[in-house]
Amino acid sequence: MHNELVQEIELSPQFLNFFQVIREITWHYFKIVQNHRVHNFLPLHQRIKQYIKEHISENITLDDIATALNASKKTLNPAFKKEYKITITQFIRQTKIDTAKELLIASNLTLLEISNLLSFSTASYFVKTFKEITGITPNHFRQHFFDEELHL
């Protein structure tokens, strides 16, 4: 009788749903702890870099970073530049262009769509920034990415 009751409970939909909810709660808790550790225990330069990567599709400002990381705006650039030898603004531009390269290769999105996805003010500013950083236009990059001589 006891074994039959245990089997009935183990196979009941409510019991299975209960364990699914427990797994989801555990996973959610893990993500909260992980996020807390990343945002509170990593060195400032790594937290800045992580924030930028997580928010690359947004128009990121130093004020946004300072607020999100609970840090003084004055401490951000010195900490970042000491470690990476570039300013936060340069890193944001470079990361946006690296993301744009991936989108140009892996999608059929238009330049305007990519520009909007990465929060550039205009498509022409996106093209200008892309060319400043890579030396070529986004269209040229997309058309010639698989050419052997193009190694970006």
Task: Please provide a written account of the structure.
- The chain has 152 residues and is mainly alpha-helical.
- It has nine helices and no strands.
- The longest helix is centred in the N-terminal third of the chain and has 29 residues, at 13-41.
- The model has no long low-confidence stretch (mean pLDDT 86).
Helix coverage percent of residues?
A: over 70%
Largest sheet descriptor: none
Mean pLDDT: 86
Element pattern in H and E: HHHHHHHHH
Topology, pairings included?
Blueprint: H1 2-11, H2 13-41, H3 44-54, H4 62-69, H5 73-84, H6 88-106, H7 111-117, H8 123-134, H9 138-144
Q: TL;DR?
A:
The chain starts with a helix and ends in an 8-residue tail after the last helix. The protein is mainly alpha-helical.
Descriptors:
152 residues
